[in-house]
Amino acid sequence: MTSTGIRLHAPAPGWAIEADVVVVGSGVAGLTAALRCEAAGLTTVVVTKARLDDGSTRWAQGGIAAALGEGDTPEQHLDDTLVAGAGLCDEEAVRLLVTEGPDAVRRLIATGAHFDESAEGALELTREGGHHRRRIVHAGGDATGAEISRALVEAVRARGLRTIENALVLDLLTDAEGRTAGVTLHVMGEGQHDGVGAVHAPAVVLATGGMGQVFSATTNPSVSTGDGVALALRAGAEVSDLEFVQFHPTVLFLGPDAEGQQPLVSEAVRGEGAHLVDGDGVRFMAGQHELAELAPRDIVAKAITRRMLEQDAEHMFLDARHFGAEMWEHRFPTILAACRANGIDPVTEPIPIAPAAHHASGGVRTDAHGRTTVPGLYACGECACTGVHGANRLASNSLLEGLVYAERIAADIAAERAAHGPRTRVPAPVPHPEQPAHPLLAPETRFAIQRIMSEGAGVLRSAASLSRAADQLQRLHTEAREALTEQGKTAEPGVDTWEATNLLCVARVLVAAARLREETRGCHWREDHAERDDANWRRHIVVRLDPDRSLAVRPTDTADFPPTR
C-alpha cells in the first residue's frame, strides 16, 4: 500500500491528544467498537460529527436480524443472506455474521438495550423482505435504532469514554512506515477543543456511516456525506462495490422537488401484511416473486419503478388500512406520526411511496477482522465492505453487521496490543505536505452533485446516463483542480466545503464502478444490460485513488476478495 499524499485543504492542527484507539462515528458499529476496546484496557477516543446519538443508527426502524427464534438456525439466515446478495456475498463473512450474531445481540441486551417482548417474556420477532423466518428483533414497535443508540450512548457515558462531539474527521495521519498514526479533525463550536486538531493513535476505526446525501432523496441524515470512504481513499485504501447502493422501496413521497432526508416507511410494515398498490388500487407485486411484497428490496424497488414508468406516475402506494388504528399506534407509532405530520393518515388512506437512496452495500474494503489495506486502519458498519451484503443487503442485516464486525475489530486491536506489548509512545505522524492539497468545492456544489447522481446513477442506470454523470462530475473535479493549480484558489475551508468535496469523491467512484459493471445484479440495475452475467461479472470492482487524483478501477479475478494484507 502506497499513500496518495493527498490531504484536504485545511489549517494545520492547533492541538493534539493521544490514545490507543480513535473511533470515528457513534452509531451501533462505532460505539460497540469503542466499548469493546475500552473493556480490553485500551485508551479509546470517540469522534463523532454531530452529537453521539445523531448518526444513522437512531433512524433504523425495522430491527436486527438474528437466528434467535424457535426452529430458526444460522444456516437458514445464511441462505437468505446469500440469495439477497445475488452471488457476490463472501460466504465466510456471512457465516461469521450469522453464527456470531445471536450472541452479539445478547451482549447488546446485556449492555442495556430493551427489545419488544411477548406476554410470555420472549423476544417478539417479526419478518421482513427476503427472510423466510421471523427473526427480526425490534424495540418500541418501529424505534429500534433509537433504543440501540440510547443504550450504547448511556454505556459510553457511564464508562467515562472520552468523546469529541461536533467534529468532522478530515484525514488519516501516518508514520514514516506508512502505518496509521491517528486523524486530523475539525471541531465545530466551543468546547475543550476547537478548530482543527489531531488525535494521535496507532489504530483508527472508521464507522462513519453511509453516503446517502450523494443523492437528492435519501433516508440518510444530513451528516451521511461519505466522509469515511473519502478519507480512506485519500489515505491509499481500497474501496469496493460502491455501485451497489440500495434504494429503499417504500419512502414517504413528499413531492417531486423534495430533497435531503425523507421519512422511511419500514419494511416491517410490509412484513405485517401491508400491500403495494398502484393508483388504481391494483396489487402489482403478486405473481412477480414468491414472496410478493416481501421480496428482496432490489426486486421491490425495481417493480415500483417499472410501474411508475408504465403509468407515468410519480409514486405508488402502500396500503395498510386494514391494520386499524390500534395496530398502527402500537406497532408503528413513529411511522404513523411521520405520515400524519405530512398530511397522510395511514389508518384511513394509502401511503404515497417511492424508492430513495438508503444503504451502501459497498465501502472501504476489509477482511474478517475489519482490517483495511492500510496498516492500522479499520472500518466497520455502513462505510465498510466486509463482503456480507454482496450486491444487495438483506433487510436488518446492517445493524447486526455493525455489532459483529465492531466486536471483531476490537478483538484484533487488543490482540495486536498483547502481541507487541503496552504502548510506550504513539507513532509520530509524518507532517502534512503543503501539496498536493485537495481543492475544495463551493458549498452549493453539493446540490449539483445530488442532481447529477439522482438523474444518472439512481435506481435506473444506463451507459448513456452514467456517461453523462461521469462527464459532469469530472467537470466539477477539473474546474476545482485548475482553480487551485493555475490560480492558487480554492473554496474556503469549512464543514460545507469539506462535505461537498467528500461527496464528489465518492460520487466519482460510484459512477466509475457502475459504468464498468455491464450487467444487472442486486441493486445495480442497468437498462442496457438487463440480465445478470455471472460469466463476466461475478466479481467485485475495486477502486483506489492515485496520487494524481485519478481513479484506478479494476475488477477482481474471481468472486473472492483478494487479501487486504
UniProtKB/TrEMBL annotation:
Subcellular localization, as worded in the UniProt entry: Cytoplasm
Annotated signal peptide: none
GO biological process, one term: 'de novo' NAD+ biosynthetic process from L-aspartate
One Pfam family this sequence matches: FAD_binding_2
InterPro entries: FAD-dep_OxRdtase_2_FAD-bd, FAD/NAD-bd_sf, Fum_R/Succ_DH_flav-like_C_sf, Fum_Rdtase/Succ_DH_flav-like_C, NadB, Succ_DH/fumarate_Rdtase_cat_sf
Entry cofactors: FAD
Name of the protein this chain belongs to: L-aspartate oxidase
Organism: Streptomyces misionensis
